[in-house]
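Changelog-adjacent note: as of this version, every example in the card shows the full chain rather than a window. The one below runs 154 residues end to end.
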Amino acid sequence: MPRRLLIIAHAPSPNTLRLREAAAAGACHQDIEGVETEVLAPFDVNPDHVCAADALLLGTTENLGYMSGALKDFFDRIYYPCLEETRGRPFGFYIRAGHDGTGTRRAIETITTGLGWRAVTEPVLCRGVWQDMFADRCEELGMTLAAGLEAGVF
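Full-length structure tokens:
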């Protein structure tokens, strides 16, 4: 039975859409066969999606030193319904930060610690003015999570 990777990423601009698509492309790399990947916007995710996933990849913009309202809404809606069922769930995340991303990172790490999720990669922080290599880093993140799932590493 294939493992399931759920990508939940806010993409309000063409560049952030590129990041989400790159993460999905990495997760769906031709050499990775044992993982099904689903990509959803935060407002489209419900607790059943999260509980059915074997791992999660989160993506957000930095908004006023915090995560996007869309990702915060996602956490608000799934927190208690998923609290016990998803403890230990592996995850990774990326942040498209116009500044430094530290407040956003801290907020995500605080909430996921409360959920008992397990970070299996370093966060990808795409800081400052847009660079095309941001998409490459998100693609690598998606590939890392999917390959780790397939190999049973997490």
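Structural remarks: The radius of gyration is 14 Å.
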